[in-house]
TrEMBL record:
Keyword list, A-Z: 2Fe-2S, Cholesterol metabolism, FAD, Flavoprotein, Iron, Iron-sulfur, Lipid degradation, Lipid metabolism, Metal-binding, Monooxygenase, Oxidoreductase, Steroid metabolism, Sterol metabolism
Cofactors, names only: FAD
MF-aspect GO terms: 2 iron, 2 sulfur cluster binding; 3-ketosteroid 9-alpha-monooxygenase activity; FAD binding; metal ion binding
Chemical reaction(s) catalysed: androsta-1,4-diene-3,17-dione + 2 reduced [2Fe-2S]-[ferredoxin] + O2 + 2 H(+) = 9alpha-hydroxyandrosta-1,4-diene-3,17-dione + 2 oxidized [2Fe-2S]-[ferredoxin] + H2O
Organism: Thermomonospora cellulosilytica
Name of the protein this chain belongs to: 3-ketosteroid-9-alpha-monooxygenase, ferredoxin reductase component
Keyword Metal-binding: yes
Length: 341
C-alpha cells in the first residue's frame, strides 16, 4: 500500500470559513500525484487515539497550476474540516493517498455546464480552469452561495471571466439577495445549455434539485455527473487485514493493466481484489475501501466477479463492465481488469 506525504507550502484563507492548502509532494513521489481535473485527495486526519480519512477535491488544474491545491470549508461539527482549518499550517506534513475520483470530463474540448454551491466549487474550479487553459469549448458556471462574503475564489473567477469573456459565463446566485435556488430559477438558467455535458457539486439538497432540473430538461443521465463525498467510517490508510478464511476452491488468476504495465496476480476466492493487489505491490488507486466513492473502479475485461457492496455504480456503469476493486471477489478462474481506460 502506498501512503504518500505532502508538505503544506502555504495556507490561503479564501473566506472566513474556507482555507486552501498549497501542497508539495516529495520530488521522488511527483509522478504519483498525476491527476485529472475534478479528482480529489484522501487525507489522514487524527481522531482520538487513532485516525480517520476525509476526501477533499483538488481545486488546482493539472494543465495550468504548478502545485497541488485543496480547499477545505469548515463544516459545523465536521471532524476533518475543523481540524484542518484550526491546526494545519505552513510547513506541516500530511499523509495522503494518490489522487482519484471519476468526477472528471472525458474531453476538455466539450462545451460544459457547471452547477456548484458552496464548497462544491472546488472540483468544478479544477475542471473550469483546465478547459479554459487546454480546451476549445465554452463553459457556463452557475454558482450558489449564502452571501457575497462566502463566495470562494471570487477574485479568481472574476479574473478568468475577464480573460476568457467569449468562452466563460459565470452566474452567481446569492441566497441573501435571491433566496434559496428554486427549480424554476435553475431551470431558466440551465435551459439554454441543456445540450451540454453537466457537472454538479454542492450540498445534497442542491445536487438533488439540480439533477432533477437537468433530467426535466431532457439531459440524458449519462451526461450529468454528480460528485458526492461520504464521511468514511474506517481508516483506508491502515494495512489490509490478512484474510485467514480457508478457500474451498483453488484461487483465481487476474491480469491487471495499470499505468501502462500488465501484472498477473493470484486472487484467492475469499479476498477482495484491492487487498490482493496492494499485498502484491500493485499501486492501485483507492480511497474509501467501503464501496462508496468509485476511486478504485476498474473495467472487467474478461471473466466474472461479484461485489459485496456498491452504492456508487449505476446500471450503465455495470453494463460498461465497471467493478469496485475494494468490493470485488472472483467467480471465474481467470479474469482480466484494466485501470487504464
Amino acid at each position: 500500500m502506498t501512503v504518500l506525504k505532502v508538505r503544506v507550502a502555504e495556507v490561503v484563507r479564501e473566506t472566513a470559513e474556507a482555507h486552501t492548502l498549497v501542497l508539495e509532494p516529495a520530488e521522488e513521489d511527483r509522478d504519483r500525484f498525476a491527476y485529472r481535473p475534478g479528482q480529489f485527495l484522501t487525507v489522514r486526519v487524527p481522531a482520538g487515539d487513532g485516525h480517520v480519512a476525509r476526501c477533499y477535491s483538488l481545486c488546482s488544474s493539472p494543465v495550468c497550476d504548478d502545485r497541488l491545491k485543496v480547499t477545505v470549508k469548515r463544516v459545523a461539527g465536521g471532524l476533518g474540516s475543523n481540524w484542518i482549518c484550526d491546526n494545519v499550517a505552513e510547513g506541516d506534513v500530511l499523509e495522503v493517498l494518490r489522487p482519484s475520483g471519476t468526477f472528471t470530463p472525458a474531453s476538455l474540448d466539450e462545451d460544459l455546464l457547471l452547477l456548484a454551491a458552496g464548497s462544491g466549487i472546488t472540483p468544478v474550479m479544477s475542471i473550469l480552469k483546465s478547459c479554459l487553459a487546454a480546451g476549445r469549448g465554452s463553459v457556463t458556471l452557475v454558482y450558489a452561495n449564502r452571501d457575497e462574503r462566502s463566495v470562494i475564489f471570487a477574485g479568481e473567477l472574476r479574473a478568468l471571466a475577464e480573460r476568457h469573456g467569449e468562452r466563460l459565463t459565470v452566474v452567481h446566485w446569492l441566497e441573501s439577495l435571491q433566496g434559496l435556488p428554486t427549480a424554476a430559477a435553475l431551470r431558466a438558467l440551465a435551459r439554454p445549455y441543456r445540450g451540454r455535458e453537466a457537472f454538479v457539486c454542492g450540498p445534497e439538497a442542491f445536487m438533488d434539485l439540480a439533477t432533477s432540473v437537468l433530467t426535466g430538461l431532457g439531459v440524458p443521465a449519462g451526461r450529468v455527473h454528480v460528485e458526492k463525498f461520504f464521511s468514511l467510517s474506517g481508516d483506508p490508510f491502515a494495512e489490509p487485514e490478512p484474510d485467514d478464511a480457508a478457500d474451498d476452491e483453488a484461487p483465481a488468476t487476474v491480469e491487471v493493466e495499470i499505468d501502462g504495465e500488465t501484472r498477473t496476480v493470484t486472487w484467492p476466492r475469499s479476498q477482495r481484489l484491492l487487498d490482493v493487489l496492494l499485498r502484491a505491490g500493485v499501486d492501485a488507486p483507492y480511497s474509501c475501501r467501503e464501496g462508496s466513492c468509485a476511486a478504485c473502479a476498474c473495467v472487467l475485461l474478461e471473466g466474472d466477479a461479484e461485489m459485496d457492496a456498491n452504492t456508487v455504480l449505476d446500471r450503465r456503469d455495470l453494463d460498461d463492465g465497471l467493478i469496485l476493486a475494494c468490493q470485488a471477489r472472483p467467480l471465474s478462474d481467470r479474469l482480466r481488469v484494466s485501470y487504464d481506460g
